[in-house]
Amino acid sequence: QQPVQSPQAVILREGEDAVINCSSSKALYSVHWYRQKHGEAPVFLMILLKGGEQMRHEKISASFNEKKQQSSLYLTASQLSYSGTYFCGIGGTSYGKLTFGQGTILTVHP
Amino acid sequence: DSGVTQTPKHLITATGQRVTLRCSPRSGDLSVYWYQQSLDQGLQFLIQYYNGEERAKGNILERFSAQQFPDLHSELNLSSLELGDSALYFCASSVEGTRPLEQFFGPGTRLTVL
Questions:
Q1: Cβ-defined contact of B58 to A97 (cutoff 8 Å)
Q2: Which of A79-83, A92-96, B13-17 has the lowest mean pLDDT?
């Protein structure tokens, strides 16, 4: 079952904050966040594991809410380089395959 | 540069044909994943290999097959191609394949079926 991401698109000015949500109808074991720029490969941002701590990558952090079966990605003081499509991927317990959400397009303007 | 290589970068072929996409994982990575990315379907998991053996399967069509060789490179074979198979095909690798780990994506192969 594909996780659902919201919002579908976000437009920001440099320095503004954004939150991207990823919800699953199934129990979450791991949530992976990737950023993909147009025409390029997805690039790993972070993994959140069930029972694990909130992770950070530069000015990007993420949380994992087991009860709500949801993960949120927080982008603070956004930079132009943050523009791209953000994907969350749901991981299983005994294998590495990921089921990705449909993506959230983030555009940061000067 | 993730360290994962994919060839060819672009492939243009006709319906009904067969193509082979090649992937070399990062040095030391044992697991390889294949994903298909199209505009209407997003990033779809196809198949995973771990140390030469199939580990997990996604919504991979019967016309598609893959394998991982002893040197750990992998090939994805697509046959009886249809217009709808046009997409970007990514290969990713991770250190191992029995638990969720960071995956490193290759640059992708863009397949166009005419």
A1: yes
A2: A92-96
Is the confidence at residue A56, as pLDDT, over 70?
no
In the beta sheet, which residues pair with residue B77? B20, B65
**Residue-level pLDDT at B42:** 82
Residues 6+ apart with CB under 8 A from B46: B33, B34, B35, B36, B57, B58, B59, B60, B64, B66, B76
Q: Which residues of A touch B98 (CB under 8 A)?
A: 94-96
Task: Write the burial class of residue B10 (CB in 10 Å: 0-12 exposed, 13-18 middle, 19+ buried).
Answer: exposed
Output the pLDDT for position A94: 60
